Amino acid sequence: MKPKDVVSFAGRNITQKKTQSLLTIIGIVIGILAIVSLISLGYGVQNYITEEISKAGASVITVYPSQQITSIAMSKNFNDRDLKAVEDVRGVDVVLYGWFGGTQVTYHDQEYYSSVFATKSSTYQIFFTEAYGYELEKGRWMKDSDKYTCVIGYSLAHDTFDREIDIGDKIEINDKKYKVVGILEQIGNPDDDNSIVIPYEAASEVFDVDDEYNMFMVKIKDGEDVTKVSEDIEDELEDSRGDENFSVLTAEQLAESISSIFSVLTIFLVGVAGISLLVGAVGISNTMHMSILERRKDIGILKALGAENNTILSIFVVEAGFLGLFGGIVGTILGILIAKAIEYVAAISGYGLIRAWISWELIVGVLVFSFVVGILSGYFPARSGAKLNPVDTLRGE
């Protein structure tokens, strides 16, 4: 039997059982759309963050008091001696030091849990305008003489509370009122757009810390070798702290660390979505098994006419593959639409970092994967059908 005849037989079998085939395909569709949308959004966010860090911070080195970024809260914090050690490294231009954490913020009796960064006011202005290009939407930067003032993110000012926050308004942090003197332009990163920056002098009241820092951000001088400066910072901090439990990350290394975290998360979510695909695969296998039982006489006639086992096997395997492929096509289209819809909703909600990553590699890979899943799901039922005795099938046994 020619390949086109095998395809024709398989196609006709699917169209004759429209309802059964449709229900089978739905299982694949659900699994594939979940996988496509999760991969698209996962890698979209990962690529966006990586690009932004690399683009904005080519001359920035970030230093954490732990080798694991996710366990900073349990680490030995930096002190003034560590700060002096970093500032004295050759090639270092500006060191932004401070305490980063989260706390409850109140505005007109509404509460919101926000990220708060307590740092030296003048250094913050220099660092973020020169290294990252941040600008204010309105107001002014904080001054070193300020204490109960703050600069807030765009979303916190305009979207978080029922009533917008304006310059001169006061927000309450730990029972203390802070006057808003500046509002940042929209950055697109929800952490920055919902954050609050306060003078370091207020850190003791908000976080109960004094001359302790859980983050250094280092801007190096133009023309300096980032790698060489980062290695020198490591050496000086090791002498200052007496241990190696800290992280010195260039923009490229920080992007890689964040990418690895997102990759693990994406793989986990795709694994969960794969359960839906497994259910769809079981549906294909069950459909093929029922189809073989219903067409025993057809198999017997084909064998009586000289069809070999491999031909019978091919017909049912191709049919199963088509079910998987059709489900993959529909699932891919729906998955892309869902990912794009989430990106659109996130954009108008101020979460610009949520992007949908769509590529031909993703589309082709998912379609091939769904076709292979269909083939594998239908192989064993098809093999049992190919081994049927033609005499028994024609007798109806």
From TrEMBL:
Compartment(s) of residence: Cell membrane
Residues in MacB-like periplasmic core domain copies: 21-235
Membrane topology: Multi-pass membrane protein
InterPro entries, A to Z: ABC3_permease_C, MacB_PCD, Macrolide_Exporter_MacB
Positions of transmembrane segments: 21-45, 261-287, 312-338, 358-380
Domain ABC3 transporter permease C-terminal, residue spans: 272-390
Species per Swiss-Prot/TrEMBL record: Methanococcus maripaludis (strain DSM 14266 / JCM 13030 / NBRC 101832 / S2 / LL)
Similarity comment: Belongs to the ABC-4 integral membrane protein family.
GO molecular function, one term: transmembrane transporter activity
Keyword Lyase part of the UniProt annotation: no
Protein name in UniProt: ABC transport system permease protein
GO CC annotations, alphabetized: plasma membrane
Protein origin, superkingdom: Archaea
Signal sequence residues: none
Key words of the record: Cell membrane, Membrane, Transmembrane, Transmembrane helix
